[in-house]
Amino acid sequence: MKVIQHSAQTLQTALVSDHQGLAKVYREYTKEERRLLEEGFHPGEPGSLFQPITVHSDSDWIPAHPEEPQDFESFYRDHYRKTPNASHNTIYIQTIGSFGEAGVQTDQYVEWLRQYSQAFFYGLSVKLLPAVTVAETGCSFRVNSNTHNLQILTGDLLRFLGNKKPKDAFCIVGITMIDLYPKDSWNFVFGQASLSMGMGVFSFARYDDSFYSRNYAGRLRKRLQLKQGDYSVFDRYYTPPISSTPLLRSCKTMTHEIGHMFGIRHCQWLNCIMQGSNHLEESDRRPLDFCPICLRKLQVSVGFKIGERYKVKKRFHRKQYNITKIIW
Predict the structure, then answer these.
(1) Which domain holds residue 63?
(2) pLDDT by residue (tens digit) across 27-41?
(3) Ramachandran category for residue 120: left, alpha or beta (phi over 0 → left; psi -120 to 50 → alpha)
C-alpha cells in the first residue's frame, strides 16, 4: 500500500491559490470555516476530518489513469465548467425500470437518495421525475455474454434524458438497477455522462455483493432470442433488494457523478468522494464527502455557507438515524 502525502504548503496552494484575488476571496470565509478547511493541511492527524489517499494496487484509479491534478485556481478558471444560476438551479433524478419490489421500501429508497442529494448539494433544489419503464425510454438492450444478465444501452438513455430535461434543470441524472453497456465492444459500464449537456445515467446493479456470483438471481437461465422493441423481457426482471450496502454505494455514485457536472475532476489531493475508482473495493474506501479543496470548488459554484451546509447534513443524518447508524 502506498500513501500519497502532499506537503502542507502544496495543499494550502491547491486550496487557497497564489493569486491575490482568489486568496482575498478565501479570507472572506469565517474563521470557523477556514479552520475547518485548513484541517486538510495535516491529514491523518488525531481528530482530523481528513485523511491522505491510499493506493492499494496498480489496478487502483490513480496509477491506472494518470491525470493532471485540478487545484482550486485551475477549476475556477475553467471556462467550460457549468455553474447553476437562477434559471437553472435544480437537479433532477429520473428512475428507469424497477427498483426491487414495488412498494413502500422502493419509494423510501428513491426518496432517501433525493433527500441525501438535497443535503449534499445544499443551496440547490433536488427533485424526482415520475418513474419510467425501460420500454418508455425506447432504448436498445442485450444479454451480456459473460454474466448472462440483461443490459441497456447508455447512449439511448442519454438521448431520452435530453428530451425530458426540464427547462430549469442544472442537470438531470438517470438511475437504474439494470446493468448498462456503452457500445457492443464493451462488457459493461457503471455509468456515462455528457457533462456539457448536464446529463448522466448510472446503474447500481453491480453494487449488489452477489452480482458476480453464479447464483445471482439476475442471471438468465436460458438463452433468449431478443427482439429489439419487445420489452416484455424486463417484466418482473430481477433487481437487487434494497439494503444498506447498495444504498451507501448509490449515495457515493450519485454525489460523485453530480460533482463532475460542476466541472470538478477526479481528486488527487486527499481522500475524497471525487477520487476515481476502478473497482468496488476502491469505491468503498472513499469517504462520503468532499475534501476541503473540492468543497471549495462546490461552494464557489453554488454560493452556500460552508457551516450551514454541514449543519443541514448533520440534521439530515439525525433525521434518518435508523438508516445512517448502519452506513455512516
Answers:
(1) 2-81+265-325
(2) 999 999 999 999 999
(3) alpha
